[in-house]
Design brief:
The chain has 13 helices and no strands. With about 230 residues, it is an all-alpha fold. The protein has two domains: about 90 residues, Leucine-rich Repeat Variant (Alpha Horseshoe); about 140 residues, Alpha Horseshoe (Leucine-rich Repeat Variant). Helix 5 packs parallel to helix 7, helix 6 runs antiparallel to helix 7 and helix 8 runs antiparallel to helix 9. It is globular.
């Protein structure tokens, strides 16, 4: 383990809770180990750690990230994702390769969705010339998590959403049997409905979306209308 991470291991071990770890692992269908540290407590520990040891420099970030991704406890992945978010606005262009590594390794919704909106989304705002070639490459791989990221990186874009790109990818993924793809289609439409609800309503009416996508797309508007 890189020396930078040794004090973090001590912090996590000292605050581990086997009972919470058991249920966290069960919730994630047994895929990952946990120390059993609740989200707010883990963020408090991260803050304590960073106050003492600082953020990793860009030269060591790839190694630290890959080590955190190789460690068994999921809290390590959460830690380095949140650290990466602190550094995202100053990231060099090539950081996208590291984000791709994080998406592809130990892939599940809890990491992929965070990376999509908080890392990749920020990166593409900084380097818009990367959007089309990178997302086209990701779409072409057929990898569900890269495709989900190609949909969800615009979650926080609001009026800056590239609607043409969004609808292009939605239409190419329509008919998918993958839960996480259909959920993502609905989610990005739901978020955009907060910016242009009329457009989303008309779009959903015209498209043959999966029932899950349709429900998710209309959820916010229906809740708003029922208040």
């Amino acid at each position: 383990m890189h020396p930078y991470l040794n004090p973090l291991l001590e912090l996590f071990q000292k605050n581990a809770n086997p009972e919470i770890a058991f249920y966290a692992k069960k919730y994630m269908k047994g895929q990952y180990e946990y120390f059993g540290i609740k989200s707010q407590e883990r963020r408090d520990l991260k803050k304590e750690f960073l106050q003492k040891y600082g953020l990793p420099g860009p030269e060591m970030l790839p190694l630290i990230t890959k080590e955190c991704w190789d460690l068994p406890q999921r809290e390590y992945q959460y830690f380095i994702m949140e650290v990466q978010e602190r550094l995202a606005k100053k990231a060099e262009k090539e950081r996208i390769d590291l984000y791709e590594f994080m998406i592809l390794k130990k892939s599940w919704w809890d990491t992929v969705d965070y990376i999509a909106s908080n890392l990749v989304g920020v990166h593409f705002q900084k380097y818009p010339d990367l959007i089309y070639p990178v997302t086209e490459k990701w779409m072409a791989t057929g990898n569900m998590w890269l495709q989900r990221t190609s949909l969800l990186f615009q979650l926080k874009y609001k009026k800056k959403t590239d609607v043409t790109l969004m609808t292009n990818y939605i239409q190419r993924l329509q008919g998918s049997k993958e839960f996480f793809i259909n959920k993502a289609i609905g989610w990005i439409l739901r978020e955009y409905s907060k910016t242009d609800s009329d457009w989303v309503r008309h779009y959903v009416e015209k498209q043959s979306l999966a029932p899950l996508s349709r429900r998710e797309a209309l959820k916010w508007m229906e809740r708003k209308n029922n208040k």
